[in-house]
Amino acid sequence: MHWKRWITALVALPLLILLILKGGSTLFTLAIAGVATIALWEYYRIVFTGHTPAVPLYSSLWSYAAGVAVVWTMPTHGFQSLTALLIVYLIGAAIFSIFRFPLSQDAPVVVLKQVFGIVYIPISLAFLVLLYNGDDGIHWIFLLLLVVAAGDTGAFYVGTYLGRHKLAPAVSPKKTVEGAIGGLAANLAACFAYSLLFLPAISTTGRIFFALGVGIVGQAGDLFESEFKRVAGVKDSGTLLPGHGGFLDRMDALIFAAPSAYLIKEYLLA
What we know:
Helix content: over 70%
Number of helices: 8
Shape: globular
């Protein structure tokens, strides 16, 4: 499993670096929209496991279209456009639910899960585009991804070899307190190493706050996604990334870390 994890990372990493350095805002936005769509599909696959009747295709397509629209529109037209998109999406999802109701009275719950999916994944990931389009955006994206990846790797290996005390056994039995601490230590190390070289204007306090803020919410995001899988009785959100599971498995920490990083940068480190 470990070698699959590393091979996948080694294949994907150069493509990701090239996208960030040379892709430009448009291509980067399209890439995030694509990833958000795949992650949203995996989320729906988890939360709608065993639903009878199945969620109609037209209702799912409406959700994917809304997700792409959010990622594309929010960074360029602001949060006001986001409110409008969410209202339009909610109205559409509610209309579709009327046709489902004669078949199953869980229609309102289905709408709630669909709307939550849009807030949980595309809106959160749209903050990556906001971060990318801001001042020193490329460096902030690299800093965020490096901090999240370091925390994930640190938690995995420290937890594997030194973990003794369970962190949240009801949610994720393999996660340990030692792994969580190792992840935060890796968050700090990665943040200091990169920011000292490429974002020297950040203060020492700012670096600590950014690393721990992103690290803590990232671990919370990981555990939060595990709750969905635990309820659905599935191990991974998908199989598209060998050694990592699905896109949602790989993005779970980033989903919470991206908006947190943007808010910290814009409102606490400015």
